[in-house]
Sequence to fold (937 residues):
Amino acid sequence: MAAGQGMLLAVALYLFASVASVDRNNFKTCEQSSFCRRLRSLEPQRSEFEVQPQSLQQFKQYIMLTLAHQRTKHEYILKIACLKDSNTFHLQVDEREPLSVRYRVQDALVQEPQYGPTKVESSSDTLIMVACGDKPSVKAAIQVAPFKVDFFQDGKLVVTANGKGMMRFEHLRRKPEPNAEQQQQEEADQKEQGGGQAAEPAPADNDPGAWEENFKSHHDSKPKGPEGLALDFTFPQAKVLFGVPEHADSFALRHTATKGTDPYRLYNLDVFEYELNNGMALYGSVPVVYGHGETSTTGVFWLNAAETWVDVFSANRDTDMVSSLVNLVSWNSQTDPPAANFISESGIMDVFVLLGPEPIDAFRQYTDLTGKGPLPQLYTIAYHQCRWNYNDERDVEMVSAKFDEHDIPMDTMWLDIEYTDGKRYFTWDHHKFPHPVEMIRNLTGLGRHLTIIIDPHIKRDGGYFFHNECTDKGLYVKNKDGGDYEGWCWPGSASYVDFFNPDARRHYANQYLLENFREQSETVGIWNDMNEPSVFNGPEVTMLKDNLHHGGLEHRDVHNLYGHMQLMATFDGLLRRGEGRLRPFILTRSHFAGSQRYAAVWTGDNMADWGHLQASIKMCLSLSVSGISFCGADVGGFFGNPDGELFSRWYQTGAFQPFFRSHAHIDTKRREPWLFPEDVKLVIRDAIRKRYRLLPFWYTLFYEHERSGLPIMRPLLAHYPTDVNAFGIDHQFLLGHQLLVAPVLDQKQQRSRDVYFPVRADGHGDWWYDWDTHRQHTATGVEAIPVDSYKVPVFQRGGTIIPTKERIRRASTLMRHDPFTLTVALDREGRAKGTLYIDDEQSYEYRRGHYLYLEFEFRDGVLSSRKIDKTASYKTDTWLERVLIVGLGKQPTAATLYTDASGAASGRLELEQDGDVVTVRKPGVSMLDAWSIKLDF
Fold:
């Protein structure tokens, strides 16, 4: 077969597979991954590592010790340090004298760790006690033999490293020369492995997969031999573990440490129509796990970009934590505490231990390390319309016009790979899109935007300028022999930009500049897809591990970081394209720790079924607590054709997730909202309009995320950490601390939806108000909420104030000067607080102090507004149109507005009362001014 025919066949096979279901035979199990097979432990054991106490070296900001393996006598360096102003320890283990330098992850942390004073409180032949000078309640106890580290918060043991004795660290070594008999046995074992039957675990020197490895038709030469490592962490105060995205599984991690069950896998892969309720690897990897119990929340961030497996030892092995209905969990206090065992193929042990003690503290400690998601442009958190593919300019124009015709707001049109000239990125198919700049200008004239896809694979075509430049400049990933690596992807034969090369990143970023990619504008958003990287003819649909990157890096060391490095380059290009003024918008499929600094993430190639709708919440909750708040799923499912009920319920769910986009596969039926029956279209329109009303609230949440690093979408345990029944709930969620969202996720929930109202630490519940009816809910526990086709059960917490805009326009950009409404929901004490953030919604001027950050407070019958950041200012035309107050319990007789600094009254206001809702109409006050509204009774 000719090479060109082979390429076309590979693409055809990929397309065929992508409309069937995931073929699990294409992806490794732990037994087929030799390092996982060797290093995995399922039972506690005595560790073979010991500390040499006489090696202790004390420095102002860290200590160092020698670790020795008792059998091999190989030595390692242990470094422990306290992070400045944080209940966080940094623990590193590396070989003392490796044969070659082992890789340490770069570019994931927002900056180098900032250490505070670290001191040895006491030292003996059995125990070394380390304290943090600026946090005396934070300590680490290093046990000499067998080696383990206990971490304490306020005198309470909260995390133990190597408590189960599962630490492994394969030192680099030279390959032994096998005799003929060994050679024959190796070949037999290799064949057995390739057929999917794994050999029994064996020491590295005797394991044929340690020195080279086959999977199906692919060969990994492993030039450095075995270099795997593993370390377990126990969470003595926890009842549940969560984190380590990305998996299509429950929020609370399941017990995996059982023979025949695979660990959770972190290895970025292109998996179409992924299965639900398992730990198979997906598109992204964030190696952070949290342990939570009623008295403590802690975390472990395992900074390693190689293939990693995570075994979970659950404290609640017999309880199914899936939560299509609320489980009232009965915890067994005699069960061993939960633990997680991280197993990585290469690199070093580079671990941050986050000591909380509250969930919010642990989440903030993680984003202090990896960065906060920057405030996006407002339009990016509105509604996006996408499919693979909109056919041509006329199609784009027609879809945009139809949204107006049907009075449905929409901010962004998207174009998938078919807009390009033969899958050559940074080009246009001028037959289908002869006037791209004019098309973009027409959209922006309506207040809308365009986003286009650009992937990391580059078509190998001598007539393609970018391929020629990458070839001439040596900017491609290399194969193990030093030549440009070739794989197959959408263009056919393709090579892959080496984003670990600073010159390649800069050259790639330069392509986004208007002087290079002329047929665009500075307002166009970018979609980075297939960046795991996806290689249709590669092992597990990705790149060979023995490929080489800039500086001699093996791909095995950095695989999970590849897409992240593309994001860095894209962000740099878009930032310079907008001359540093406009905030870039990027959507990515592949991601790693820290990717939130550059891009939003979606959950990949899901399916049009109810299970995948439910999974969208579970997956985004796991991503959110792992730093990636700007998350969403393809509304309606990428594959398949949703019926009207599923489609409308998915819109209702997506409208309350941070990233809100409808997207569909090329082989699906067209599914713009007006193509469904009128009753379905109207439900969809209602859901989208709810999103637009709440945009001021969303925008404030995103701004506060940049300031605090806290998730936007939160599990119930974030604010109800002592409510054991809330630990495993992942079918409802919080937005900030203000809204409780419980969308309809099941075809059976046509008349009612069970909602769990959580319990506070004092044993009481908050007051919750139905967002639509303002009906008050004061009880805790499960309540059946009536629903119809329009109903999305959403509740505002008593004690909060939420800003909205009630004038819905075709796009969010046209709402900038519209007035605000405040909904004041009172708590048991008759009080409430809320915030509102205002700026120009697109530029970086807010970082120069050009913004308003306001706090509203209601107490003693007075609603007032004040600036939080008094030195910041932004001239705005917005004003206060209406105030709704719920939970007053009595009817006011009058309302008076005060705006004068002297306290003089500015005038009487019109009041209305409808049931339990009091409305103050048209205060008319500018959001720039300090003001108060006093109710008289």
